[in-house]
Amino acid sequence: MEEERDNKKDRSNFTCLVAFGRLRPHIVPQNSGEIKVKPTEFITRFAVNGKFVYVDQRATAILGYLPQELLGTSCYEYFHQDDHSNLTDKHKAVLQSKEKIFTDLYKFRAKDGSFVTLKSQWFSFTNPWTKELEYIVSVNTLVL
């Protein structure tokens, strides 16, 4: 073993560990000392007319609504009045584009009546068989 070490002294032998971590901006400490991480992103789908057809369960922790409470309602019912014009423009743009459309920051009414700030990526899904636009996917991120 010592002979082998002596032979290796001439050669540089470095060991390196590379690790990646993901920052979680919305951490909620619990009384028990446990730390729970609240989701900061959720996915929704809405029809061409803006009515919700799918709501990710992670939306409940952010907005307070159960998914079934939003289904069938228009997304415009929850947008702050000041954001309607801009979001209408984005809605029109996503209907005419095959690219992702990025919204500006906007306010979305939570179940308790307060507003949370979101930013979203919208893209349309076209049925490959019928070539008809079926729905719009929205990846929503909570902005703290």
From TrEMBL:
SUPFAM superfamilies, alphabetized: PYP-like sensor domain (PAS domain)
Matching InterPro entries: Circadian_TF, Nuc_translocat, PAS, PAS-like_dom_sf
Repeat is among the record's keywords: yes
Keywords: Activator, Biological rhythms, DNA-binding, Nucleus, Repeat, Transcription, Transcription regulation
PAS domain: residues covered: 49-98
Keyword check for DNA-binding: yes
GO MF, one annotated term: DNA binding
PANTHER family documented for this protein: CIRCADIAN PROTEIN CLOCK/ARNT/BMAL/PAS
Entry protein name: ARNTL2
Lineage of producing organism: Eukaryota, Metazoa, Chordata, Craniata, Vertebrata
